[in-house]
Amino acid sequence: MSGPGQNFDERSEADGEIRDAYRDYDAWFQAQDTKWLLRKHDDAETAFRRTGITFNVYGEDEAEERLIPFDMVPRIITSPEWRRLSRGIEQRVSALNAFLHDLYHRQEIIRAGRIPERLFRNNEAWLPEMVGCTPPGGVYTHIVGIDLVRTGPDEFFVLEDNARTPSGVSYMLENRETMMAMFPELFTQVPVESVSTYPRRLARSLAACAPEGTSGKPTVAVLTPGIYNSAYFEHAFLADQMGAELVEGSDLRVIDGRVQMRCTTGYRPVDVLYRRVDDDYLDPLTFNPDSMLGVPGIMDVYRAGRITIANAPGTGICDDKAIYSFMPEIVEFYTGEKPLLPNVETWRCADPESLKYVLDNLDDLVVKEVHGSGGYGMLIGPTASKKEIREFRTKLEARPENYIAQPTLSLSTCPIFTKKGLAPRHVDLRPFVLVNPDGIDITPGGLTRVALKEGSLVVNSSQGGGTKDTWVLKE
Fold it and tell me: How would CATH label the architecture of 345-408?
């Protein structure tokens, strides 16, 4: 793994020579007029504003909609690199699905002593209501986002798994559409794999997971919490692109043992519900009784095998960062193979020895909440103030089981476009994976998130990060 100050530059070698992945793009870029590129940069921002590609910021005095910054220099991955990544992603996603089935059935991995029972017994993401329940087609994780970071030429690590409701795919699609609209000639010079078929493949994959006995073409709907949700743009975008209905909880009700949606002619049964509502709000009769976002009685219909919920309730256990730390054991247990994509070294603060190490080395570590997301509730030791470290130490000592810690990685950099020219910034990558009974489908690319602030390691849009188009080069 690269050490501090030795960030791997994905575009160029240490001597400045352009790497193979960027050679064709760089030749095109160097031939362009700088003023024209600056105008194109402004055009991209205008296009995103017109399209309405924004997200809501929560937790501030005045919640607001913000534009997710888009950088027009693509992140480029060679075909051999992508093949290696795809094999590792497929292996990991297969193991996640097998793990979920086992966890809600015989729990062989716990009986074998490979992971401790305490990890899920009091875990809010583990749902007792799913015990003994097998989803239609046996698929738990229909859509998965695996967050990857790179530290060297052949060094890729999984940073976290997103098996509950991974977001961001609409930005992957809009980034590509924007690039093709702005630079059509560029795509004739550089052969890039397409991502535009994702919505159609998503629709087909979800339809393939319809309950047994579904007649005719399955009816697929997207369940959104509504317009005030931070990812509402994506919910509406995907429903439109898939040709699916966009519904809220108030549009659905249980009639004659089926979940049905209101339409102009009455109510119509739904076969597959792509839900973007968290477990706790899915069914007020089973989970949070105050929820106005879900459908009363939907879990009874689900357990009877009369609707597919994607992703399955209870999959959030795989997003738990303490579970993540056991993924090497999980992959080996269910596939019989060593992981092709390694984890980042992780200390579980619930373990007394690990906690002592973390407390002694807070200045050098990244500490995260086990259920945290969006870059919130974390400490980046090397950039934190003494006060922030003191406050975090108190939190850790009070609730060690709520945290894991990892080394501060030397994340790879990709160039971004600035008024002064190209400048390196840290990136991560979220490829999107579709799972159905017929197999696993990995979109060639994904969402590259970039830390636009110089030196920053936090790529989340809620923390000032932006996005890039991700190119996988054709053979």
Answer: 2-Layer Sandwich (3.30)
φ, ψ dihedrals at 387, nearest 5°: -65, -45
**Nearest CA-CA partner of 227 in 246, 243, 205:** 246
pLDDT at position 463 is 64
pLDDT score of 219 more than 50: yes
CA distance 79 to 84: 9
**Cα–Cα distance for residue pair 344/350, rounded to 1 Å:** 18
Judge whether 317 and 120 are in contact, CB under 8 Å. yes
Q: Read off the pLDDT of residues 384-423 as tens digits, 9 standing for 90 and up.
A: 899 999 999 999 999 999 899 999 888 999 999 998 889 9
pLDDT at 47: 79
Tokens describing residue 197: 């078929």
CB of 219 closer than 8 Å to CB of 270? yes
Which is nearest to 444 in space by CA: 195, 260, 225?
195
Q: Give the least confident one: 16-20, 42-46, 87-91, 254-258.
A: 42-46
Kindly give the pairing relationship between strand 379-380 and strand 447-450. Answer: unpaired
Mean per-residue pLDDT over the chain, rounded: 91
- How far apart CA 330 and CA 109 sit, in angstroms, is 8
Q: Is the pTM of this model over 0.85?
A: yes
Beta strand 258-263 with 143-152 is unpaired
Across 258-279, average pLDDT: 96
CA angle 34, 37, 38 (to 5 degrees): 90
Phi then psi dihedrals of residue 319, to 5 deg:
-85, -10
DSSP 297-326: THHHHHHTTS-EEESPTTGGGGG-HHHHTT
Among candidates 108, 109, 103, which has minimal Cα distance to 132? Answer: 103
Give the whole-angstrom CA distance, residue 261 versus residue 272. 12
pLDDT band at residue 2 under the 50/70/90 scheme: very low
Token pair for 216: 């005719």
Q: At what angle are helices 169-182 and 232-242 packed, to 10 degrees?
A: 70
337 near 91, Cβ under 8 Å?
Answer: yes
Amino acid 217: pLDDT: 94
CA distance 273 to 298: 10
Kindly compute the dihedral angle of the four CA atoms of residues 128, 134, 139, 145, in this order, to the nearest 10 degrees: 0
Q: Which helix (H) or strand (E) holds 89?
A: helix 79-103
Query: Alpha carbon 238 to chain centroid distance?
Result: 15
Domain residue ranges in the chain: 20-344+409-472, 345-408
